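Quick one:
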Amino acid sequence: MKVNSKNHFFVFNPKSYLYGEKLLKYAKVADKMSKKYPIIDVFVTGPYADLYRLNKETENIIVTAQHMDGINPGRGMGKVLPESLKEAGVGATFLNHAEHPLTLAQIAASVKRAKELGIITIVCADSKEEAKAIATLDVDIILCEPTKLIGTGKTSDRDYVESTNNSIREINPNALIMQAAGISTAEDVYNTISQGADGTGCTSGIVKAKDPEQMIRDMIEAVDKGSRAWFMTVYMKDYQVESKEGQVSFIDITKNVKEAIDLSGIQKGICTVTTSHTTCSIFFEEFTHDVDENGTEFLLLDMDECLQKIVPNHDSADIYRYPGEKHYQEVESWPDLDKWLPGGDRTKLWNADAHIKSSIIGSSETFAVKDNKLKVGVTGYVYFVDFDRTRQRQRKFTVTVIGE
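Output:
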């Protein structure tokens, strides 16, 4: 058996608090949750005498031993034989827990035997230094858990989580990382997973809870929520277009939006297109095949004419209050005056209509992304419009894709 490196995981480790019927009862709750969330691997430990029954009466959890010795069949009175665990249906084992510490040589021997039998190894480390040493071995999961925090309800801080994660991954990028110190609530689980741990687990937070069954459900659900937060990707790409002087400039940017989604690699999420210009807008409309002599689609021309009836073009100084004298003077004080008022021409600020139209249409649009594609109909297109007719300019817009 091999743990799926793409999955997050949760370990319910009741140690010796539970056994027999009560252990089986809670294991079945975990089993149902494992079925509900197939992308989360759920491990459940138990005393050795209960492992066979756990395997026989559950279907989805990974039955886990509390320890395994690195021995072969033969002499070894009192030792835990790997083949015996395998025959009982055990899929994973803890090694080097604080309550059953091992030397590095003993860990190596047990890991070797586990690999031979296809048993997943969860190896505990009390410190970052020990975790780095264990990472040199061919282990499956490294549990970073300072002994002083076990059972305290106090979790490792973000710096410890991030530093141990980074240290282990530099040495062994294939090992999964479990952070479980002090986990006592579903919120602890969420925070630990969202901070970058591959998995977490709990003992006393479950067995001492008022409702242990509900706590198991809540914690596994928190792994799911935390994993989605951890996998969330944000991709941003800026584009530049050119507007024309003397007319409202409509520009089809659908290809740009689709390109950004493709480059993001995001399969499922949302895509937002925004512009920071106060006389420009982003909108979604049907593509129409007919165009005028300037190449503007008929539906866009109709849209412009409708807006002009509500907001007339700013063709004279007495149509709008804007811009007032103070605004003229402010612009005229700018060091790059000629950029805004070429030759001191105040009519280049006659764009109140553009500002108002932009406010009506809006500066952004948001779309669904599915299967790394823009989820719109065949004739659904995305447009950039610059309502400012006063001069030709370079304009910008940004495509932001968020998801997984």
